[in-house]
Amino acid sequence: MIQIFRDWTNRYLSNPQFVILGLLLLAGFVIVFLFGQILVPVFAGIIIAYLLEGMATRLEDVRFPRLAAVLVVFLLFMTGLFFLIIWLLPLLSRQIGQLLQDLPSMLAAGQKAFMRLPESYPDIISQSQARQILSVISSELTSLAQRLLSLSLASVRGLISILVYLILVPLLVFFFLKDKAMIIAWLTRLLPDNRGLADQVWREVNAQIANYVRGKIWEILIIWSISYIVFKLLGLQFTLLISLFVGLSVLVPYIGVTVMFLPVGMIAYFQWGWGSDFLYIMIAYAIIQLLDGNLLAPLLLSGVVNLHPVAIIVAVLLFGGLWGLWGLFFAIPLATLVHAVIRAWFSIQPPDEAAVSTAKALSAP
After folding, report:
1. DSSP-assigned letter for residue 305
2. Helices 89-115 and 239-248: angle between axes, nearest 10 degrees
3. What are the pLDDT tens digits along the chain (365 aa)?
4. What is the 3-state secondary structure (H, E, C) of 107-132?
5. Hey, how many other C-beta atoms are within 10 angstroms of the C-beta on 65?
6. Helices marked H in 36-126 — which ranges?
């Protein structure tokens, strides 16, 4: 056993490129883990600039100067941000406020419907079990209301943070775009010279994540638009809010689609009860998800992320448990990084085996 461990160590840890790659990954993890809360504006600026870089590069391909391309992309970004703050957020806040006002009546109707279950299905659930379940749900809702109250009490601090982010993040995005080459050159000088394996992993991950992010953005926008139109035509309440979350649910593969069935069904039930309208909404939602899974996602993301569904689910559970909502959003890119590291780690032969293989190849007739 000791000899096996020694051979494995000599094979994969004697190569300095492996060691440098491991140290770089460890340093990145430590920075995110220790300083993540402090550096949120910087991380947000890096992510947004990374997303906008493709548009700036395309403008450069049609002979735009770099500064002009950056200015055009940045103005489009600020226009979208202005649209988000002035038009979209007020609409969403009004629908959220209306939902909170209607929530007590919805809960009361749901409680009455739930207490009728023992009468219809006495062999499955009893009156005492129904009361116990309602008691647990009531206590959970009470704790949730208390958490929301504590958030509202800290709203002044949150508002100040949002205002700071609205100033800092656009500035960081602009400078990350404008001075990209200078920043990368400065960071490159800080890295070790013998980093060929790290460069290989970065090139693979960069290509995969760039295509994945672009495809996911289009998928979110298309599913959001289709859901909004369909729900609006069918007369569902809180259409903008529900359709937005349906669009965002594609960020969490398999799990997001399943989880969104519950709020869509609850809103439809409290609006119409059991009936044809409720059935139409659920059928429409199922058709939208079937089209997304079988047509839209393969069309936009074909060959981008070559991960098995089990690996994707494990990544969602693991990174979601580590970093919560942000972990869910970045589960697939992080899984892609892990996959690229594993492939690179086990694909390169140690120098002695590479030399033996080369000698055998040269001596072969």
Report:
1. -
2. 90
3. 676 766 666 665 666 667 777 777 788 778 777 776 777 788 888 888 888 888 888 888 888 888 899 999 999 999 988 888 888 888 887 887 787 777 777 777 777 777 777 777 777 777 777 778 777 777 776 676 666 555 554 454 556 677 777 888 889 999 988 888 888 888 878 777 766 777 777 777 777 777 777 778 888 889 999 999 999 999 888 888 889 889 888 877 767 777 888 888 888 888 888 888 889 999 999 998 888 877 777 777 655 566 667 777 787 778 777 777 677 777 777 777 777 777 766 665 554 444 444 444 444 44
4. HHHHHHHHHCHHHHCCCCCCHHHHHH
5. 10
6. 40-61, 66-83, 89-115, 117-120
Copy the structure tokens of residue 108.
């009361």
- Model's pTM, two decimal places? 0.72
Residue 255: both structure tokens together: 């799990």
Q: In the numeric block, which tokens belong to residue 342?
A: 């594993």
SS (H, E, C) 223-253: HHHHHHHHHHHHCCCCHHHHHHHHHHHHHCC
Collapsing DSSP to helix, strand or coil, 348 comes out as coil
